[in-house]
Structures are given as C-alpha cells and as structure tokens.
Amino acid sequence: MLGMWRGRRKLLVASLALLFIPALTWLYLSVGSFQVKPLPLSPLEAQSSMAVGRRGEQKSLELRVRAVEEENHALRRDLSRTPRSSPARHPNSDHHGNQTRNHSEEGTGDNEGQKSAAVVGNRSDCVQQPMVDKCETIHVAIVCAGYNASRDVVTLVKSVLFHRRNPLHFHFITDSIAQQILSSLFHTWMVPAVKVDFYDADELKSEVSWIPNKHYSGIYGLMKLVLTKTLPSDLQRVIVLDTDITFATDIAELWAVFHKFKGQQVLGLVENQSDWYLGNLWKNHRPWPALGRGFNTGVILLLLDRLRKLRWEQMWRLTAERELMSMLSTSLADQDIFNAVIKQNPFLIHQLPCFWNVQLSDHTRSEKCYKDVSDLKVIHWNSPKKLRVKNKHVEFFRNLYLTFLEYDGNLLRRELFGCPSEADHNSENLQKTLSQLDEDDPCYEFRRERFTVHRTHLYFLHYEYEPSTDNTDVTLVAQLSMDRLQMLEAICKHWEGPISLALYLSDAEAQQFLRYAQGSEVLMSRGNVGYHIVYKEGQFYPVNLLRNVAMRHVNTPFMFLSDIDFLPMYGLYEYLRKSVLQLDMTSAKKALVVPAFETLRYRLSYPKSKAELLSQLDMGTLFTFRYHVWTKGHAPTNFAKWRTATTPYRVQWEADFEPYVMVRRDSPEYDRRFVGFGWNKVAHIMELDAQMLLWVEYAHNTLPCSSTGLSPFQCAYDYKPPLFSALKRERSMTLWFCPMPT
C-alpha cells in the first residue's frame, strides 16, 4: 500500500509540473507587455500626494500637450505639401475604398466620425484627412433682407471672424436696405483678408415669387434655391448660412467637409432635429415629403459646379410644381423644396454630423447631438423664440451668443499671419498718410483722429419714411452718446417729423440701447427716426464726424441742425415747413436761425407760446442760451429785437456765432478735425456763411500750439487758420431768424 501511494504521489507531482511550467513561462513572457499600476492610495494619502505634486504635474502636462500640438501641426503641414498621385485621393472619392456605400448606410450622422475612425484603424497605413490650405479662401453665402436681419447677421459674422484662420469671401444676397447697411458696415470695418460682394435680391424675386410661402421669412426665404444661378459661374463651392447662426469653431473645419463628398453628392446638410417631417405634431399635420426626419437648411454645403451640371434649376422647379399641386404652399420656405428633391434623389445628400447645426427650437432632439457643450460647432437659433427657447443648456448657448453680440468688433481687424491681404487702396493710402504725420508734434493725436475710420452701422432699428410732395419736409439732426439716451423720448414727443441721430457707442452699449428702445412705447411707435451707430474707437469724442453721419442720411430737402440737449418747441416742425415757403428757401441760399434758451431747473413747465416764454425770461426761470458763459455765441441773434419781432428778420454773421439753424440738405458738412468740445459749430456756421463767396482772401493769423495746456480746439485752430480769418467781400448765404409764433 505504501509503495502504491508513493507511486501515485510521484505521478501527481509530475502532472502538476507539466501544467505549471507552461503557465509560468507565459506569465514571464507577458510581464514585459504590462505596466504594473500602483494600488490606489487611501483618501488621506491621495490628497496629500496630489497637493504636493499637482503644480509640477500640471506644468509638465501643459508642456507635453503643447509639444504634441506643435508636432501635429508640423506633421499636417508636411502631409499637405506631399504630392498626391493616387486617384483615390481625389476630393470627391472615398479615401478608405468604400465607394459603394450609399446614403442609407451612413446613419444619422452622429457616428460618422466613429465609423471613419474604425475604417482607418483597419488599414495598415495612416491616411491623413485632407486639410484646408492655410491661405485658401472660404466662400460664405448669406441671404439677408431688411433692417432687423442686417443687425442680426453681424453676430454671425463676428463669430466667424473670431475663430477664422483663412481669408473669407462673403456673398450677400440682399435687398436695397440690407445692401446699404452692410456695405457701409464692411467698408468702415476694414477687416483684413475679407472680401464682400452683394447680389440684388429684388432681381431674383421673379424666380421664386410664384411659390406660395407661409414662412415668416417671406419671399427671401426661398432665395437659396437660386444660388447656382446667382453666384459667379466660376465659384465651385460655397457654405450657405442663415442669419441666426453662431459659430463655435473655425469655419475652415466645415469647409474641409467638402473633401468627404463622394459620387454624386452635392448637398451637405444636417438632419432635421424636430419631428416636423414625421407628420405627427398634431391632427391632420401634413408636411412636405422628406427622407426620414428630413434635413435642416440653416447650414448647407453646396457643390455649385456639380449642381449646375445636374441642372439643379430644372430639378427643383419640377419638384416644387408637382408638390404644390397638392400642398398648395410651403410651410418652411426653401427647406420644404430641398427635402422634396432629396426624397426623390437621395444620392445628392451628404449627411453632416448634427453638431454642425444644433437646432435650438422647442421639442427638438438637439441635446442628442453632443455629450458636452464643448463638442458644439454651430448653434442655430431657428425658433421664433430665439434666446427664450427651451433647452437644458440654453444658458450656455445664450451666453455664447451674447459674447459675440457684445464683442468689440474693432478687435477683429487683425491680420492673418502668413496670408497677405489683397491690395486695398484705401488702406494703403491711409497708412501712407499716417506715416507722414510727425509723432513728436504736440497735436499728433488730434491730427491723427481725422483719419480714424469708425465702424458704422446705419439704421440700427427699423426705419420708415414717406417723402412729402411739397418739398418742404425737415429732418432734425443730432448726435449723442450713452449718457444722453434719456433725451430721446422727450425729443420724439416734441418733434413729430423725421429724425436722424448718430450714436457714439461701444458694441455692448449698442445692445443696451437696443433693449432700451425696444422697451419704449414712445420710440417703438416712431418709424421715422433713423438711428446710426458709430462705434467707439480712440480717446476723443468725434463730435463733427457724428454730425456728418447723421446729415448724410437725411432724406428730406431740409434739415434742422440741433443738439441732443435741446427740446424743440411744440409745433416747431410744422412752423419750419411753413417758413420754407415763406422765405423761398428752395431756390435761395438761406439759413433759418432758431433761437436757443436754457434753464437751470430740472423740472420746468415748458412754454407753449412766445408770450409765456417772455414771461419766464422776465421771471428768471429761463435765460438766453449761455449768455453768462459765452455771450458771443448767440449775440448776433439780437434777442432784444426778437422780443418784439413778428416776422423773420435778417441777421449778420459775427465771429464766434454758433446758432442752431435749418438749412438745405446739400449744405456743407462739419469739419471732422474738430473733436471733443469747442469751436466745432463756430467753424461750421462760418463756412455756411462764407463758402459760396465769389472771391475770398485769407489772412493767416494762427495761434501756435504750445507743449502744455493743449486742447482740441487749439490744435484745430492752428490746423486750419483760414476758417478763423476770412476777409469777406460778398455773401451768397444769408441768416434769417425765426421769431416763434405768439
């Protein structure tokens, strides 16, 4: 028995040895391929360890990340410079050999990146995605019409300019209003490497006016359908955007998606994130035909050259005509027709990941487009509620939008490194002129101010004006800054005629003004007030530039040049119109002086007649304007004569005269070299009185600027001496005085 047990024991040991030796060998060979991770520390040990090494680890991590990014940028540059001879590298072919995959196999677009990564991972070689060339121009088309859309599109443009690294070419399809506003804005914005072209939307109306449209965008909501015909024939691709879009990334990333188009794909769109095209929103809801959920046209990638070859114009027209026979009208403008075409021709569509158009309208699936808000690319405020839309991350979206809304647009005038801008003669001449100024001149800053180009947004709010038929209409002209905003309502109550105002504001203050105006019943009830925003830049208040901006956009034959602190008497508007006929101001060169008074009281019963005004003058509650500070300013008005006058009388110009006058619209502008306070109106009145002279001899009697105690008017005085020393032989403009009705 003992011998038998020993034999069995030997057999058992041998069996165990045969089993463990391979296992130990495998374990030994596998140790080299695994990293031994330390056991987690206790909470106290972990906290003390992190407190000691956190700063060093963070710095080293930042350095490593920076080094990796630099290596990646260098690698991308090298790859982009490498010649591509393989036919598979064509921008319109499948880089991974999967050329037979159609639209239905691409899914919802949310996992497009994951699919691409999986395909790349199965290949032995590394395929780099096509990159946008550093200086390649990106073309963007936007349909914009009206005052409000022209204001809203600026936020979109700011978000694009903020992130961009490439030259941009904006193609605006506009009505006459938007073209006037945006052309002036971009001309004064002077952003390097940005080109802007305009296309008259009114000429395109006949192309789409036959389509009944219930959408609030009106006929302009159908203009995207005719872009292949509108945009230049040599333009091959373009990104089309709605005005209510905000970019959270470089638009070049979206431009690079064109390289992913395959076969006959010509349209890049994001799936619609609402249930609209599913037809189950309410009883008898009958939307236009669409592929699945349909597609949203707030962001479109168009391959224009291929669309033209496919006869896109004929394609969408035939589809629209057929569907309108049963649908009668569109509900979502061009989006309905785009979807009907795609339903019939699904091969046309390249579905974009939904983070390229996160649609923030109520009851959408937008929250499924991203795991974190940092993943977002493009935000689309496509609900009429705009910022009041419902979304669990709406605060983040709203803050992002407000950031660009109030962002200082002057900061976007930055050059693109390594991408020389096209020659701009205006910019070149400006730089040449500035280089000729003497920086050691004590008046250098004042002289430089006259060449500052202030970004200007005309007609910031809706404007309506119906010209009068008798050519006597008068516009009140004034300028103001944020601290005089409270005067607007009072002026609108006193003056029922058209008003042209230039406001000197920052981007943030412009939005405060917008909220103030939209919350005022008085201002919102007036459509004939033109608000023109001149954005702040530099250290001086460009008072005469502001006056000129307001004067240039007067639409009436005459204008009353006032200041924002003055309230016109009730009925002055109609009185001045009658004076135009009485003094025959349409054919004669005359300026009608309106006397100015002031009060030191905060609350005052406004005089309703001349008799009541004279009574307040006698009681000391009113004074002739600045009689105790600057008597010369209004002395030629001859207030003693005015007290008894019943008809207009002629007054003679005298030095330092600065009245408030009504003149013809073609009168000379103010000299913009005057900034801040002092002499700005004096010089203008002198020019009104003297510029039409048959013969003028100038005597140069200048005051030199000393190195201390400089003021803007001293420098302007020295800069243009003829204004203050003209010897007049004959006048062709006369000054007349308004006596005010009794």
TrEMBL record:
One of its GO terms (molecular function) is glucuronosyltransferase activity. Gene3D superfamilies: Spore Coat Polysaccharide Biosynthesis Protein SpsA, Chain A. Keywords: Glycoprotein, Golgi apparatus, Membrane, Multifunctional enzyme, Signal-anchor, Transmembrane, Transmembrane helix. Coiled coil: none annotated. Transmembrane segments: none annotated. The keyword Transit peptide does not apply. It catalyses: 3-O-[beta-D-GlcA-(1->3)-beta-D-Xyl-(1->4)-Rib-ol-P-Rib-ol-P-3-beta-D-GalNAc-(1->3)-beta-D-GlcNAc-(1->4)-(O-6-P-alpha-D-Man)]-Thr-[protein] + UDP-alpha-D-xylose = 3-O-[alpha-D-Xyl-(1->3)-beta-D-GlcA-(1->4)-beta-D-Xyl-(1->4)-Rib-ol-P-Rib-ol-P-3-beta-D-GalNAc-(1->3)-beta-D-GlcNAc-(1->4)-(O-6-P-alpha-D-Man)]-Thr-[protein] + UDP + H(+); 3-O-{beta-D-GlcA-(1->[3)-alpha-D-Xyl-(1->3)-beta-D-GlcA-(1->](n)-4)-beta-D-Xyl-(1->4)-Rib-ol-P-Rib-ol-P-3-beta-D-GalNAc-(1->3)-beta-D-GlcNAc-(1->4)-O-6-P-alpha-D-Man}-L-Thr-[protein] + UDP-alpha-D-xylose = 3-O-{(1->[3)-alpha-D-Xyl-(1->3)-beta-D-GlcA-(1->](n+1)-4)-beta-D-Xyl-(1->4)-Rib-ol-P-Rib-ol-P-3-beta-D-GalNAc-(1->3)-beta-D-GlcNAc-(1->4)-O-6-P-alpha-D-Man}-L-Thr-[protein] + UDP + H(+); 3-O-{(1->[3)-alpha-D-Xyl-(1->3)-beta-D-GlcA-(1->](n)-4)-beta-D-Xyl-(1->4)-Rib-ol-P-Rib-ol-P-3-beta-D-GalNAc-(1->3)-beta-D-GlcNAc-(1->4)-O-6-P-alpha-D-Man}-L-Thr-[protein] + UDP-alpha-D-glucuronate = 3-O-{beta-D-GlcA-(1->[3)-alpha-D-Xyl-(1->3)-beta-D-GlcA-(1->](n)-4)-beta-D-Xyl-(1->4)-Rib-ol-P-Rib-ol-P-3-beta-D-GalNAc-(1->3)-beta-D-GlcNAc-(1->4)-O-6-P-alpha-D-Man}-L-Thr-[protein] + UDP + H(+). InterPro entries: Glyco_trans_8, Nucleotide-diphossugar_trans, Xyl/GlcA_transferase. It is found in: Golgi apparatus membrane. Residues 91-106 have a biased composition (Basic and acidic residues). It holds the Pfam family Glyco_transf_8. One of its GO terms (biological process) is protein O-linked glycosylation via mannose. In the C-terminal section; belongs to the glycosyltransferase 49 family. In the N-terminal section; belongs to the glycosyltransferase 8 family. This is LARGE xylosyl- and glucuronyltransferase 1. It comes from Gasterosteus aculeatus aculeatus.
